[in-house]
Amino acid sequence: MITALDKAxxxxxxxKAKILVAARNLFGEYGFHGTTTRMIADKAKIDISxxxxxxxxxxxxxxxxxxxxxxxxxxxxxxxxxxxxGRPLEERIKIAIAxxxxxxxxxxxxxxxxxxxxxxxxxxxxxxxxxxxEFIGDIAxxxxxxxxxxxxxxxxxxxxxxxxxxxxxxxxxxxFFRPMVKLNRKDYIKMVKETLQFVLIPGFTAREGKKDQKVxxxx
Length: 219
Description:
76% of the residues lie in helices and 0% in strands. It has helices spanning 4-10, 15-34, 37-44, 48-55, 58-84, 89-106, 108-119, 136-142, 154-172, 174-181, 185-217.
Protein backbone atom coordinates (compact mmCIF):
# COMPACT_ATOMS: atom_id res chain seq x y z
CA MET A 1 0.00 0.00 0.00
CA ILE A 2 1.36 3.42 -1.00
CA THR A 3 1.36 5.78 1.98
CA ALA A 4 1.19 9.55 2.12
CA LEU A 5 4.90 9.52 2.98
CA ASP A 6 5.69 7.41 -0.09
CA LYS A 7 3.80 9.91 -2.26
CA ALA A 8 5.60 12.88 -0.68
CA UNK A 9 9.03 11.33 -1.19
CA UNK A 10 8.21 10.31 -4.75
CA UNK A 11 7.12 13.82 -5.67
CA UNK A 12 9.24 16.44 -3.79
CA UNK A 13 7.31 19.27 -5.42
CA UNK A 14 3.91 18.09 -4.23
CA UNK A 15 1.80 19.67 -1.50
CA LYS A 16 2.36 16.59 0.68
CA ALA A 17 6.12 17.05 0.40
CA LYS A 18 5.86 20.77 1.12
CA ILE A 19 3.92 20.10 4.32
CA LEU A 20 6.34 17.33 5.32
CA VAL A 21 9.34 19.65 5.02
CA ALA A 22 7.61 22.33 7.10
CA ALA A 23 6.68 19.75 9.73
CA ARG A 24 10.22 18.34 9.91
CA ASN A 25 11.64 21.78 10.58
CA LEU A 26 9.06 22.76 13.18
CA PHE A 27 8.94 19.44 15.05
CA GLY A 28 12.72 19.53 15.09
CA GLU A 29 12.77 23.03 16.55
CA TYR A 30 9.86 22.85 19.00
CA GLY A 31 9.18 19.14 19.55
CA PHE A 32 5.79 17.42 19.35
CA HIS A 33 4.12 19.47 22.09
CA GLY A 34 5.57 22.81 21.07
CA THR A 35 4.42 22.49 17.47
CA THR A 36 0.83 23.08 16.39
CA THR A 37 -0.86 22.28 13.12
CA ARG A 38 -1.48 26.01 12.75
CA MET A 39 2.28 26.64 12.88
CA ILE A 40 2.89 23.97 10.24
CA ALA A 41 0.11 25.30 8.00
CA ASP A 42 1.43 28.84 8.31
CA LYS A 43 4.97 27.76 7.45
CA ALA A 44 3.71 25.79 4.44
CA LYS A 45 1.47 28.78 3.54
CA ILE A 46 -1.71 26.71 3.43
CA ASP A 47 -4.86 26.49 5.51
CA ILE A 48 -5.50 23.91 8.22
CA SER A 49 -8.04 21.97 6.16
CA UNK A 50 -5.45 21.39 3.43
CA UNK A 51 -2.97 20.07 5.98
CA UNK A 52 -5.51 17.63 7.43
CA UNK A 53 -6.56 16.53 3.96
CA UNK A 54 -3.02 15.52 3.07
CA UNK A 55 -1.75 14.19 6.42
CA UNK A 56 -4.59 13.64 8.88
CA UNK A 57 -3.97 14.82 12.44
CA UNK A 58 -0.77 16.01 14.12
CA UNK A 59 0.19 12.55 15.37
CA UNK A 60 -0.05 11.14 11.85
CA UNK A 61 2.19 13.87 10.52
CA UNK A 62 4.65 13.49 13.40
CA UNK A 63 4.91 9.77 12.76
CA UNK A 64 5.51 10.46 9.06
CA UNK A 65 8.32 12.87 9.99
CA UNK A 66 9.96 10.23 12.16
CA UNK A 67 9.68 7.60 9.44
CA UNK A 68 11.08 10.07 6.91
CA UNK A 69 14.09 10.73 9.12
CA UNK A 70 14.45 7.01 9.75
CA UNK A 71 14.76 6.34 6.02
CA UNK A 72 17.15 9.23 5.46
CA UNK A 73 19.45 8.12 8.26
CA UNK A 74 19.44 4.57 6.97
CA UNK A 75 20.44 5.67 3.49
CA UNK A 76 23.15 7.95 4.83
CA UNK A 77 24.55 5.15 6.95
CA UNK A 78 24.74 2.87 3.92
CA UNK A 79 26.76 5.53 2.10
CA UNK A 80 29.09 5.92 5.08
CA UNK A 81 29.61 2.15 5.23
CA UNK A 82 30.59 2.15 1.56
CA UNK A 83 33.17 4.87 2.17
CA UNK A 84 34.85 3.22 5.16
CA UNK A 85 34.67 -0.44 4.18
CA GLY A 86 38.06 -2.12 4.28
CA ARG A 87 39.96 0.92 5.55
CA PRO A 88 42.18 0.97 8.66
CA LEU A 89 40.35 1.63 11.96
CA GLU A 90 41.59 5.22 12.40
CA GLU A 91 40.46 6.13 8.89
CA ARG A 92 37.06 4.46 9.41
CA ILE A 93 36.35 6.47 12.53
CA LYS A 94 37.65 9.73 11.09
CA ILE A 95 35.57 9.40 7.92
CA ALA A 96 32.46 8.26 9.83
CA ILE A 97 32.63 11.22 12.23
CA ALA A 98 33.18 13.70 9.40
CA UNK A 99 30.42 12.26 7.22
CA UNK A 100 27.79 12.09 9.96
CA UNK A 101 28.72 15.54 11.27
CA UNK A 102 28.34 17.09 7.82
CA UNK A 103 25.04 15.29 7.26
CA UNK A 104 23.51 16.28 10.61
CA UNK A 105 24.54 19.93 10.28
CA UNK A 106 22.62 20.00 6.99
CA UNK A 107 19.65 18.34 8.73
CA UNK A 108 19.72 19.73 12.31
CA UNK A 109 16.10 18.73 12.89
CA UNK A 110 17.31 15.15 13.25
CA UNK A 111 19.61 15.94 16.17
CA UNK A 112 16.95 18.19 17.68
CA UNK A 113 14.33 15.42 17.52
CA UNK A 114 16.72 12.90 19.05
CA UNK A 115 17.43 15.22 21.97
CA UNK A 116 13.72 16.04 22.36
CA UNK A 117 13.19 12.30 22.69
CA UNK A 118 15.80 12.06 25.43
CA UNK A 119 14.58 14.91 27.58
CA UNK A 120 10.94 15.81 26.89
CA UNK A 121 9.13 12.57 27.76
CA UNK A 122 7.89 12.41 31.36
CA UNK A 123 7.00 9.39 33.46
CA UNK A 124 3.27 10.03 33.09
CA UNK A 125 3.30 10.99 29.48
CA UNK A 126 3.37 8.31 26.80
CA UNK A 127 2.37 10.09 23.60
CA UNK A 128 4.14 8.33 20.81
CA UNK A 129 7.44 6.67 21.38
CA UNK A 130 10.21 8.03 19.20
CA UNK A 131 10.37 5.61 16.30
CA UNK A 132 13.66 6.75 14.80
CA UNK A 133 16.26 4.11 15.72
CA GLU A 134 19.75 5.29 16.56
CA PHE A 135 21.27 2.77 14.14
CA ILE A 136 23.85 2.14 16.79
CA GLY A 137 24.27 -1.53 15.89
CA ASP A 138 24.88 -0.72 12.22
CA ILE A 139 27.30 2.07 13.08
CA ALA A 140 29.12 -0.23 15.50
CA UNK A 141 29.59 -2.73 12.69
CA UNK A 142 30.81 0.05 10.37
CA UNK A 143 33.38 1.10 12.95
CA UNK A 144 34.59 -2.46 13.45
CA UNK A 145 33.17 -2.81 16.97
CA UNK A 146 31.08 -5.87 16.13
CA UNK A 147 30.61 -8.34 13.31
CA UNK A 148 26.86 -8.65 13.85
CA UNK A 149 24.88 -5.41 14.17
CA UNK A 150 22.07 -7.25 15.96
CA UNK A 151 24.41 -8.71 18.56
CA UNK A 152 26.52 -5.70 19.41
CA UNK A 153 27.88 -5.88 22.98
CA UNK A 154 26.85 -3.19 25.46
CA UNK A 155 30.32 -1.63 25.38
CA UNK A 156 30.14 -1.22 21.62
CA UNK A 157 26.68 0.33 21.77
CA UNK A 158 27.76 2.82 24.42
CA UNK A 159 30.86 3.75 22.43
CA UNK A 160 28.75 4.48 19.36
CA UNK A 161 26.31 6.50 21.49
CA UNK A 162 29.28 8.52 22.74
CA UNK A 163 30.14 9.44 19.16
CA UNK A 164 26.56 10.12 18.05
CA UNK A 165 25.60 12.09 21.17
CA UNK A 166 28.73 14.20 20.79
CA UNK A 167 27.66 15.12 17.26
CA UNK A 168 23.99 15.65 18.23
CA UNK A 169 24.94 18.02 21.04
CA UNK A 170 27.20 20.17 18.88
CA UNK A 171 24.58 20.29 16.11
CA UNK A 172 21.59 20.98 18.32
CA UNK A 173 23.54 23.39 20.51
CA UNK A 174 25.09 25.36 17.67
CA UNK A 175 23.25 28.61 18.49
CA PHE A 176 24.53 28.38 22.06
CA PHE A 177 28.07 27.07 21.49
CA ARG A 178 29.09 28.96 18.38
CA PRO A 179 28.84 32.47 19.89
CA MET A 180 30.72 31.12 22.91
CA VAL A 181 33.72 30.06 20.83
CA LYS A 182 33.37 33.03 18.45
CA LEU A 183 33.49 31.11 15.18
CA ASN A 184 31.60 31.51 11.94
CA ARG A 185 29.47 28.52 10.94
CA LYS A 186 31.96 27.03 8.48
CA ASP A 187 34.81 27.15 10.98
CA TYR A 188 32.57 25.89 13.79
CA ILE A 189 31.59 22.78 11.82
CA LYS A 190 35.22 22.17 10.84
CA MET A 191 36.36 22.47 14.44
CA VAL A 192 33.56 20.23 15.73
CA LYS A 193 34.75 17.46 13.42
CA GLU A 194 38.39 17.98 14.37
CA THR A 195 37.57 18.05 18.09
CA LEU A 196 35.48 14.89 17.99
CA GLN A 197 38.17 13.11 16.01
CA PHE A 198 40.91 14.34 18.38
CA VAL A 199 39.02 13.14 21.45
CA LEU A 200 37.49 9.91 20.18
CA ILE A 201 39.97 8.34 17.75
CA PRO A 202 42.72 7.68 20.34
CA GLY A 203 40.28 5.76 22.52
CA PHE A 204 39.36 3.38 19.71
CA THR A 205 42.84 3.00 18.22
CA ALA A 206 44.48 2.48 21.61
CA ARG A 207 42.35 -0.59 22.20
CA GLU A 208 43.19 -1.88 18.73
CA GLY A 209 46.87 -1.40 19.55
CA LYS A 210 46.49 -3.45 22.74
CA LYS A 211 44.90 -6.28 20.74
CA ASP A 212 47.83 -6.28 18.30
CA GLN A 213 50.26 -6.31 21.21
CA LYS A 214 48.56 -9.33 22.76
CA VAL A 215 48.72 -11.18 19.44
CA UNK A 216 52.46 -10.52 19.22
CA UNK A 217 52.97 -11.70 22.80
CA UNK A 218 50.90 -14.84 22.25
CA UNK A 219 51.62 -15.97 18.69
